[in-house]
């Protein structure tokens, strides 16, 4: 599947989240990319399709989810490395440097990853969602040091209202021992 526009709704209720996922799929011609529980008792839905269908689907989900909606977004022309990481197929490279952005919401994490990947020549290695992380999420980026620094800065800014950003770091020349646990 080649993702073009993605949309996301993150909710504070698993039951309402499942209801919203069903409504989003029925609201427009979209493909369900992800529908899963996250900590602490949240539900994350990511859909893909053309921009108008994704917009309609997300609006429908937010209307049905109402007060249970924690966060939401629509990203037209999502960066290919974000799409790969979401689908569990990260693009690997030499890892001259690592960047990590830790965010409070899963939706904010995806926004950070997309902004970072679009800002500099980096690869998104992993997008990790809130499982055992007390509701937090993080993205790991790799590339050369200056690219990772620029990407992390852009990613932090790209979170926008989906924040807060809890922390962010750039690690030049990460240990080879760490490498096997990152990829």
From TrEMBL:
Keywords: Bacterial microcompartment. The keyword Secreted does not apply. It is found in: Bacterial microcompartment. Its main location: other. PROSITE patterns: BMC_2 (PS51930). One of its GO terms (cellular component) is bacterial microcompartment. Residues 5-87, 97-183 form the BMC domain. It comes from the Bacteria. Belongs to the bacterial microcompartments protein family. This is Propanediol utilization protein.
């Amino acid at each position: 599947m080649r993702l073009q526009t993605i949309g996301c709704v993150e909710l504070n209720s698993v039951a309402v989240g499942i209801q919203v996922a069903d409504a989003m799929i029925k609201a427009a011609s979209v493909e369900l990319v992800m529908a899963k529980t996250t900590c602490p008792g949240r539900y994350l839905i990511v859909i893909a399709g053309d921009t108008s269908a994704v917009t309609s689907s997300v609006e429908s989900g937010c209307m049905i989810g109402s007060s249970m909606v924690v966060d939401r977004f629509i990203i037209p022309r999502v960066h290919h490395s974000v799409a790969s990481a979401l689908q569990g197929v990260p693009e690997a490279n030499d890892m001259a440097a690592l960047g990590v952005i830790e965010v409070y919401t899963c939706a904010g994490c995806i926004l950070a990853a997309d902004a970072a990947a679009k800002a500099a020549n980096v690869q998104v290695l992993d997008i990790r969602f809130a499982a055992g992380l007390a509701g937090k999420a993080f993205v790991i980026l790799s590339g050369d040091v200056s690219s990772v620094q620029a990407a992390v800065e852009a990613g932090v800014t790209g979170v926008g209202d989906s924040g807060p950003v809890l922390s962010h770091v750039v690690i030049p020349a990460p240990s080879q021992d760490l490498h096997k646990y990152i990829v």
